[in-house]
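Q: My hope is that you can spare some time for a protein that puzzles me. Underneath my words sits a plain record pairing an amino acid chain with its backbone structure tokens. Those tokens are not coordinates but codes from a learned vocabulary of shapes. Thank you; the sequence and its tokens follow:
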Amino acid sequence: MSVSQYDLVLERTLNAPRDMVWKAWTDPKLLKQWFAPEPYEISEVEMDLRPGGIFRIRMTGPDGFDTGHGNPGCVLEVVDGEKLVWTSALSPGFRPAELATEGCEAFPMTAVVTMTDAGDGKTLYRAVALHKNQADRDVHSNMGFEEGWGKCAEQLEELAQQLAANA
């Protein structure tokens, strides 16, 4: 996938096996444990991992931050164990989405998450947030994309390591 000037990219080599990283991404109970940068948390998750399925999260924080019930996004592509793509521009069933008026749900984005074996039980993890224009990209960047998604990747790695140790 080529990256455009409107994209934000996070890439890390996680010290955890790919199957456990995938499991943490695709099991709603596990996703709730790492998908928000602490001290924020995910209080609700809905996932139907098939094209046209729902991808919805609700994030809350100690400062009163709350995405409400979270706008339901749409899963676009799933390659088992390797790739998950969803967008907030569409609702489930590929219907055009109603966007919020503020926060990260106020602009449409598409997330492309890939995982590849990096050898020695490690995973090359890549998350790309695609935006329609520079303004939306800048809003997302200024909201703390690098720091927030980076912290989430650390939390994902820790959880995947725990899953691997208990497997």
Q: What stands out?
A: The chain has a mean pLDDT of 92.
